[in-house]
Design brief:
The structure is a homodimer. Chain A is mostly helical. Chain A contains nine helices and no strands. In chain A, helix 1 (2-27) crosses helix 4, helix 4 runs antiparallel to helix 6 and helix 4 packs parallel to helix 7. Chains A and B meet through helix 6, helix 7, helix 8 and helix 9 of A and helix 6, helix 7, helix 8 and helix 9 of B.
Chain lengths: 193, 193
């Protein structure tokens, strides 16, 4: 009985998130609202508010539900190749609908709404940073990473240039761009001695 | 006569930009409007629209008018020290009102409004990138920078980690953070041979 109720709850959560993405893609983030999602999903808006406090939180969970596992790091034993594969997957996601434009709008919203910013960090950025640090720590232990490299900076240094291109210059993120960034970061700016 | 008219025009432009910053600081970006600036400055709104097509363009010019020269690179002959000094100045600006919160809101707006994004890039990012590349080119010619370092990536690599902290984690930008990032970028992630 409880199992069945839990499963029904999970199905409903899933259905609401799918509706959020579909509707978000159709009408855009700024016109998306919890009321509109409720109407389209055929549920009461309190059903949604019970699970998510805001439109931003609902959208974030919806985006992540589809793709979280895609952003895991492989571990083939070659850290440069594994970073490359993971970042290629990340930009493929950022470069196409529904994830790309809705994620961009969400980050825009995070500049005004501290709750959205906090949710973005807790639900997405911090877990990604943990995965990144874990993968790099293994690499450092295997001598594939400078022992001086400050792992606390890993997320900012590796993803900063991607966010710069995604949010500021707003030029397309390409695999070639990622490869050039990674080469530059591994090599460093200092001339060889 | 024309000189006098030009000077009056420049004074008016200046007064409107000062009013924009003061009002923006008081009421925040989302409540700022060209109408509100016009009322406070005691000019007609068409006087403002003649110079700036949108609130974003007006705010951007207003922010830059105060600080553009602050973001020039020194050239003491030591590129690491000069980058450090320039980036410290940049984050001091980003970390305090009125520039910080208004610039953050403007970048937020750039996620929805392609005109704001274009103005941000043309008026601020591209000129800063040019200055950065020029300073690094001198350094490379003097053997202070890896000859392999791709100058086209300089802006993304150097400022990406700052924007990541400013827009995503939204933790305070400190001089210490900048210094650690610069050290990591100069050293590179690869272990010494």
């Amino acid at each position: 009985m409880t199992d069945k109720r839990n499963r029904r709850g999970a199905d409903l959560t899933e259905a609401i998130m799918r509706t959020t993405l579909r509707l978000g893609e159709e009408i855009g983030y700024s016109r998306l609202s919890i009321e509109a999602v409720a109407a389209r999903a055929g549920v009461g808006k309190h059903t949604i508010y019970r699970r998510w406090p805001s439109k931003g939180a609902l959208l974030l969970d919806s985006l992540l539900s589809l793709h979280e596992a895609d952003l895991d790091y492989p571990d083939t034993g070659d850290v440069a190749a594994d970073l490359r594969a993971q970042i290629h997957a990340a930009i493929d996601l950022m470069g196409r609908p529904p994830f790309g434009p809705l994620f961009q709008a969400l980050v825009g919203e995070a500049q005004y709404d501290p709750h959205v910013a906090a949710a973005l960090n807790e639900r997405f950025i911090a877990p990604q940073a943990d995965k990144t640090v874990a993968r790099l720590k293994t690499a450092r232990d295997q001598g594939q990473l400078s022992p001086d490299f400050d792992l606390n900076l890993a997320m900012a240094i590796l993803s900063g240039p991607l966010y710069f291109q995604f949010l500021i210059t707003q030029e397309p993120l390409t695999h070639d761009y990622v490869d050039r960034i990674l080469t530059a970061l591994f090599t460093g700016m200092r001339p060889p001695p």
